[in-house]
């Protein structure tokens, strides 16, 4: 019994001592929960209140029915991973709930749309259709369009957007998104990403109002 107690104390001490040095690889999920990347951008035209909560949580309330914003939490850099999320999404007007990110060289802004408000993102005369991909319980249609002299992570620039838009019958505010499947489908259809910059589970709103509350890293 005595020996057993000592063994427990010994094992406990080793684990505690090991944590500060090995938190990134051996306890990757713990490190990840503590280090979600948070991003909040808006063009200053509407009122946007973004609350960055603990771990993967955030909420946003927006009003004014003007302007554009994108907020959310995730990773920097982004990449191929299974993104679990769970939330509420209640827009009035045009807004998206999505996995959203950027790459550089080439500069690309990308969207994996899970839910949207009044406006279907593919319904834009500039969008070019690039096929579809079936993953995570639905078929997503693939699209691209050019942005000319628009805001970007490198200042005002000209760059393409890549879009995967979940089927209108399957829109959802929680689940898991296999980002690598979308990256591959884009590449297979000639849409090449560059080096990953940030990738977040985002809420974007445009000329609208609403509320959303999201928990990244937690499946519904
Ligand atoms: C996420 O799911 C849990 C369990 O189903 C629920 O209690 C929680 O409210 C959800 N979070 C959000 C932001 O919807
Ligand atoms: C929110 O947006 C909807 C749809 O555009 C609009 O009808 C409504 O008046 C807006 N509400 C507020 C409080 O601005
Ligand atoms: C997906 O692409 C296939 C092959 O091009 C096509 O036959 C099918 O109609 C497309 N489905 C949707 C939902 O766009």
Automatic annotation (TrEMBL):
Residues 1-18 form the signal peptide. It is an enzyme of class 3 (hydrolase). Pfam families: Glyco_hydro_11. Pathway: Glycan degradation; xylan degradation. GO terms for biological process: xylan catabolic process. The active site is at residues 109, 204. The keyword NADP does not apply. Its EC number is 3.2.1.8. Keywords: Carbohydrate metabolism, Glycosidase, Hydrolase, Polysaccharide degradation, Signal, Xylan degradation. Residues 24-217 form the GH11 domain. InterPro entries: ConA-like_dom_sf, GH11/12, GH11_AS_1, GH11_dom, Glyco_hydro_11. GO terms for molecular function: endo-1,4-beta-xylanase activity. It catalyses: Endohydrolysis of (1->4)-beta-D-xylosidic linkages in xylans. It comes from the Eukaryota. PANTHER family: ENDO-1,4-BETA-XYLANASE A-RELATED. Belongs to the glycosyl hydrolase 11 (cellulase G) family. This is Endo-1,4-beta-xylanase. It comes from Amylocarpus encephaloides.
């Amino acid at each position: 019994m005595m020996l057993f107690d000592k063994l427990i104390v010994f094992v406990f001490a080793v684990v505690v001592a090991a944590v500060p040095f090995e938190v990134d690889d051996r306890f990757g999920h713990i490190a990840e929960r503590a280090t979600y990347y948070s991003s909040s951008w808006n063009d200053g035209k509407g009122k946007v209140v973004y609350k960055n909560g603990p771990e993967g949580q955030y909420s946003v309330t927006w009003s004014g029915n003007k302007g554009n914003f994108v907020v959310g939490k995730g990773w920097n850099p982004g990449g191929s991973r299974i993104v679990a999320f769970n939330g509420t999404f209640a827009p009035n007007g045009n807004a998206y709930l999505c996995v959203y990110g950027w790459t550089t060289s080439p500069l690309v802004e990308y969207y994996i749309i899970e839910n949207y408000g009044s406006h279907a993102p593919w319904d834009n005369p500039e969008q070019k259709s690039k096929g579809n991909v079936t993953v995570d319980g639905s078929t997503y249609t693939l699209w691209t369009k050019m942005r000319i002299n628009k805001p970007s992570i490198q200042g005002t620039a000209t760059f393409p957007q890549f879009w995967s838009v979940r089927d209108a019958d399957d829109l959802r505010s929680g689940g898991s998104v296999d980002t690598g499947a979308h990256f591959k489908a884009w590449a297979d259809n000639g849409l090449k990403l560059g080096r990953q910059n940030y990738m977040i589970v985002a809420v974007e709103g445009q000329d609208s109002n609403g509320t959303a509350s999201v928990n990244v890293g937690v499946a519904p």
